[in-house]
Amino acid sequence: MALLPIRVAPDPVLKAKAKLVETVDDELRQLMDDMLETMYDAPGIGLAAPQVGVSKRLIVMDIAREDEPKAPLAMVNPELTWVSDEDATYEEGCLSVPEHYADVVRPARVRVRYLDREGKKQELEADGLLATVIQHEMDHLDGILFIDHLSSLKRSMILRKLLKSRKQVLDEVS
Ligand code: K1U
Ligand code: ZN
Which segments of 93-148 are extended strands (E)? Predict the structure, then answer.
């Protein structure tokens, strides 16, 4: 297992549309395991392959609380087959937009079809935090960040701050 570096906005890989996975094989299962290890270490409750520089349609999640057993979930080629008319608002964060949080409105319940780690077709209905995390991670596969759901003023403020902190880090090492 390996910890993978997490890409931070405005990295171009985060704006690209990720490619469909053709085969669920040992190499992809290794990537799932590395992504889960990276997500737990961050710590986070979700991670999409583009966030570790891999432009493939693969997401991992675990919304179990610290006092609960781990409940890792990996979805290959996820597709929403139904979304509720009712919306829900959650304060979202993103490992690729560090230290910024904002309320995002999304459908409250979703049904998602995907391939599991064995390549078997599955369908899951989710609500609450899981529905939000699934949609947030699936957005990453289409090059969308949670800040793209905010006003352009808020988004450009956040991007400016990210660029400023990246410049500070680069100045410190040079
Ligand atoms: O996609 C990501 O970068 C992961 C992101 C997922 C997410 C969080 C909240 C709403 C929607 C999607 C994160 O995990 S940010 C970190 C976080 O929320 C968290 C970290 C530790 C414990 C609990 C939450
Ligand atoms: Zn994210």
Answer: 102-107, 109-115, 121-127
